[in-house]
Every structure is written in structure tokens, then in C-alpha cells.
Design goal:
Layout (H helix, E strand, L loop, with lengths): L7 E2 L5 E5 L5 H7 L17 H15 L5 E7 L5 E11 L4 E9 L8 H15 L5 E7 L3 H9 L3 E11 L5 E10 L3 H15 L5
Parallel strand pairs: 5-6
Antiparallel strand pairs: 1-2, 2-3, 3-4, 4-5, 6-8, 7-8
Helix pairs in contact: 1-2, 3-5
Amino acid sequence: MNVGPVTLELPGGRARLEPFGPAHAEGFLAAARGPEVFRWLPTPPPRTLEESRRFIQDALTMAAGGTQFPFAIVDRESGAVAGSTRYLDIQPAHRGIEIGWTIVGVPWQRTSINTECKYLLMRHAFETLGAVRVMFKTDARNLRSRRAIARIGGVYEGALRKARILHDGYIRDTACFSVIDDEWPAAKQRLQGMLRETRPEGA
């Protein structure tokens, strides 16, 4: 299960997922602004260009071990960096992978971009990488995220209690969801339907 450098996008789609790198630092800094963007994450948001570069370098350092792969989310309409997301906990021997660390800037929240990213990542995981299991984790308090994961077919598996300490010192419980390969065809149809609903007429 070698993710490798890969760019993911849909014909006529709005999102492009491309390998995260230093060239995205300025755009990512702009996308990270806003009190809610990093609310549920274990690290604070970058406040300066140097901190944005460090955030990206930290992601690349973790990716060097082969268990992660970070993507920049690019808005194809404007060319702006809309945020970032990652494959995590890549387990080739067990054909498992996690999708997480999804950061979407305020202008792109409640648009189709995040749904499109989930579709691209899940399709690539199941249909190209041969995954049998895709996992999602979120702060147990994040009801919006939990509803969104369930909506795309994620099955709730339980909570890891006091699993992570956030940058503000809060010790969070982590809600765990998964989609397995048997469930992917139905989840794929659901996601495709959601994307059709948000695509402009004639697109």
C-alpha cells in the first residue's frame, strides 16, 4: 500500500488534492485563519509564515516514515489553498488506512470541497491502494464532524477515552468510525449523489 506522490481530482470538480509542500505555506497560513479552523486539533494554528512552514515540515517528517501522506487541498476555481488533509496510520500488512487531520478554511466550510476530498481519498484507498478498511477519528465533542462522517457511510465503532491532549490542555475522547470494503459501493453511491446535488447545472 504505497501511497506515493499522487494528485487526486475529479473532472469538473472543485477540489484538487496534491502533495503538501513548502510552496503551500503562504496559502495554508491564510486558510488556517479563524477560531474554529483548528478548534479540534492537537496543535495550535500557525500564526506566522514561519509557523506555517514548520507545520508543513512536521507533516513531511512524519510522512517520511511511510505511515502518513499529507495533501494540500486546492480550490480549482480560484487556485487558492483551501486547507490540508492526510492519509494516516497506513498499514500495508493489514490493508488499513485512516483519513484525518482535515483542515478546511472558513471560506470553504459548508461547501462541497470537503465532501469531494473524502470521496477522492476513499475511492483512491479502496480502488487503487486495495484497502479493506478506512478509518476516521474525531473529537467526541465534535458533533458536526461525527454527523458528517456518518452521512458518508462511516460506522461508529466506539470511543477511545482520554486519547489525546489538545494544545489548550483539554484531554479529549476520540470517536472512531470506519468504512470497510464491503460497504464501499453503497458509500460511493451516497457520496456521488451528494456531489451531484452540489454541482452547478450543466457541470
